[in-house]
């Protein structure tokens, strides 16, 4: 493994863990918002994204040969979650934070999946 | 969702759970075999495949829109694990069982990913 | 391992997988209900219970020595989720199904944790 | 929630993620060691500990009310993994690192479980 690939894997791992935390935080916060009716998709996508980030992080930690394939799935999960969270970012700080973590993770995943 | 897609998702879910169990059983059994030295790859791939099957099953159960993307990753994990287990199937019953569960899961995943 | 313990572990594994599916189904259905405002706790507890059931099932499949400790946590998760779902069971079929799966899983977990 | 509890939960989360990474790294490294025959228990316990740490971290991130119960299971998983890794720490750097991460996580989990 080249130094560049190792560095990208490390950055991807860090981004996955940050995104996992942002998604869990956002879902829990959405579940307490008065306007929960508007946040159904957000809760749903947060959860999917969190679980996909958790698996991708674990595969990266163990040096699994599947990491690039997992990163492709993870980029997809992050893109969908980001798109939804961005629509609520003006009203909810947790959605704004989550959208940014998702976009960063999406980019890091695409870099290792390439 | 058409009836055909719903049926394929159900078959994929069942196949993922069977494969998850076969991989966990195979990994644990490999860890007790006298010839563990030959089974390193098998233990490694069993674990990856089990974790990917677990996530794919959970996404299918919740009706996540990511299921087809997850199934693509899962088919890849199953194919690699099957290829390894098939090499040990003559000597170890658990590898034979696992290889068959992986091939069935790979096929079911490709059917929903299509 | 005695035959009785092996049988209880198998029953617990089956109950965990059924409960996992019921919780995932219930959470996804709650997220589409008009009265989502009443179902916040249900969604939250469904998710925790699903994830704990998934881990407990995986530990049972691999014959982990931690299974009794995990079953203790799982019984707790199931009891809390059942208590909440039971309050909505008259109005929502998915909550009724989930409550029953949680109670069955709680009992099966207590049997192996003993 | 008091500031002290919030701080302990944060420390526990950090310790779980560090332990998760150390366990995944240790298991993967053990699978490549010439003396794998001596490391069977280590691989097995690393895997259990990693999976329990991952769940505990995720429950802490989402502020689940189950966190103290999960931390109790996690402390048990860490203690068993640490005990095994400590026996190999003189020969394998990854076991030494893992044993220390497990002991730190065990302590952090006991602090939040109390």
UniProtKB/TrEMBL annotation, chains A, B, C, D:
Instruction: Report which residue ranges the record marks as coiled coil.
Output: none
Q: Which CDD domains match?
A: DUF326 (cd08026)
Q: What is this protein called?
A: Four-helix bundle copper-binding protein
**The organism of origin for this protein:** Deinococcus malanensis
User: Taxonomic lineage of this organism?
Assistant: Bacteria, Thermotogati, Deinococcota, Deinococci, Deinococcales
């Amino acid at each position: 493994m080249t130094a560049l690939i190792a560095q990208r894997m490390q950055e991807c791992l860090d981004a996955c863990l940050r995104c996992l935390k942002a998604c869990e935080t956002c879902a829990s916060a959405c579940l307490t918002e008065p306007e929960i009716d508007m946040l159904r998709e957000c809760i749903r996508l947060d959860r999917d994204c969190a679980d996909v980030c958790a698996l991708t992080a674990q595969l990266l930690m163990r040096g699994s040969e599947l990491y690039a394939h997992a990163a492709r799935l993870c980029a997809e999960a992050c893109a969908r979650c980001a798109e939804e969270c961005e629509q609520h970012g003006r009203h909810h700080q947790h959605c704004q934070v989550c959208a940014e973590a998702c976009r960063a993770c999406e980019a890091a995943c695409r870099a290792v999946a390439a």
